[in-house]
Write a structure and sequence with these properties.
434 residues; alpha+beta; four-stranded antiparallel β-sheet; 18% strand; binds (R)-mevalonate
């Protein structure tokens, strides 16, 4: 391993790192790992005050590309959606899927209920039925305790609404159902759950933990679309055949957990990218999506595609407890800027757009899998990345990508050699013309 003195257990330098300024940390890291001037400068150049306020042991901001998904039509409104991703083909695929659906009328995403769930888990409950009776008679008081812990939420029409008991032997979960308005609400839910935990402790219940669940099954959002066969055709395959093959792939994701994982990953490519661009906790959304995908005890695709008359009908449903306020949303100027571009006004609207984007991403992936395979489209973008990695200048990239496309096998070494040849050829060309 390079530069890794840590293997010798020499980790003294890490001690108290969090107490230093970010500039001091960068200095220590730069010296310790013998960074050259360019790398030192890179760390310093990307550093921000905001980043330093947000996390501990802050070094610098790690940048990711932001791009625009165009022509995403949801409930008759056309969106241009900023998304953040490092995967080269994601934005191109999302635009492709969105455009095909737009040509057939766009996505429909219905209004959906939104609530979060906090759990206060108890141990050693001798008689859960007796506890149920006690909870029923104390429900008003418990909800008041929860709401007193975060009074502003009730003023905004949210707050703790209901409690329920779940027996999960050997534990019992007292679930709090909480409205969180425009926020994703993790802090609100956790604060309320902890307040109820204190109350239950004071009544001699043995509390194990109090925390929200990311299985946000009370914030399910769906979206659907109907794509005409003609908008699915390729140069070599007619639309009806493509549609049939997409429906088969959809079925495969329902019966094979191995395929379901990849099917859902493709959907989350788009949804995560929107979550990052909109300042949402994308790990929470991922976690909820996978919990929902496995709700039957077996992992399944969270979208389905079926043939209906002369069209392919797609449908998706997943938990989308998203927010347009709270967390880092108001802090990060890029997030605020992205909300200006996407013109999304509420958490409900964001959930509708996210579900639709996931379905658009899924359509593009399945159409590629059903026809030319995924690599054809992927490689075009991968070649561009490879060209950048081997040091091609902007004006050299198209020629290098063209050259790489003609090669039977491409690697970093091959790309490097191809770039050298390209440069040699253009020097020779210049000499000849001179
Ligand atoms: C790649 O990031 C995502 C896909 O594998 C999704 C899929 O297979 O459905 C293309």
């Amino acid at each position: 391993m390079k530069n890794n003195d840590n293997n010798n257990d020499n980790s003294d330098w890490m001690h108290g790192l969090y107490r230093l300024s970010d500039a001091q940390r960068r200095q220590i890291i730069s010296d310790r790992f013998k960074l050259n001037d360019d790398k030192r400068e890179l760390l310093a150049r990307n550093a921000s005050q905001l980043g330093n306020q947000l996390i501990e042991n802050y070094l610098t901001d790690y940048r990711l590309p932001e791009g625009l998904v165009t022509n995403l039509v949801v409930n008759d409104k056309t969106y241009a959606v900023p998304v953040v991703t490092e995967e080269p083909s994601v934005v191109a695929a999302a635009c492709n899927g969105a455009r095909r659906v737009a040509l057939s009328g766009g996505f429909f995403a219905p209004d959906a209920k939104r609530a979060m769930l906090g759990q206060v888990v108890l141990k050693n409950v001798a008689d859960p039925d007796k506890l149920q009776d006690w909870l029923t008679s104390h429900e008003t008081e418990i909800l008041a305790v929860a709401n007193a812990a975060h009074p502003s939420m009730q003023k905004r029409g949210g707050g703790a609404k209901k409690i329920r008991l779940r027996k999960i032997d050997p534990f019992v979960s007292v679930d709090l159902i909480i409205g969180v308005g425009e926020a994703m609400g993790a802090n609100t839910v956790n604060t309320m759950a902890e307040a109820v935990a204190h109350y239950l402790k004071a009544h001699n219940y043995d509390v194990l933990t109090a925390i929200l669940t990311n299985a946000a099954f009370m914030s399910l959002q769906s979206a659907a679309c109907r794509v005409s066969f003609k908008n699915l055709a390729t140069a070599t395959m007619d639309g009806a055949t493509v549609a049939l093959r997409i429906a088969d792939l959809s079925q495969l994701a329902q019966v094979d957990p191995y395929r379901a994982a990849t099917h859902n990953k493709g959907i989350m490519n788009g949804i995560d990218a929107l979550m990052i661009a909109s300042g949402n906790d994308w790990r929470a959304i991922e976690s909820g999506a996978y919990a929902y995908a496995a709700k039957t005890g077996r992992l399944k695709g969270i979208s389905t595609w079926q043939i209906s008359d002369d069209a392919l009908v797609g449908r998706i449903e997943l938990p989308l407890p998203v927010g347009t306020v709270g967390g880092s949303i108001g802090l990060n100027p890029m997030t605020r800027l992205n909300f200006k571009i996407n013109d999304i006004q509420s958490a409900e609207e964001l959930a509708k757009v996210a579900a639709s984007l996931g379905l658009a991403q899924n359509l593009a992936a399945l159409r590629a899998l059903a026809t030319s395979g995924i690599q054809a489209g992927h490689m075009q973008m991968q070649y561009r990345s490879l060209a950048v990695v081997v040091g091609a200048k902007d004006k050299e990239i198209p020629a290098l990508v063209k050259k790489l496309k003609q090669m039977p096998q491409v690697s970093q070494a091959v790309a490097k050699k191809a770039l050298q040849e390209l440069r040699k050829d253009s020097t020779n060309d210049r000499r000849t013309t001179d």
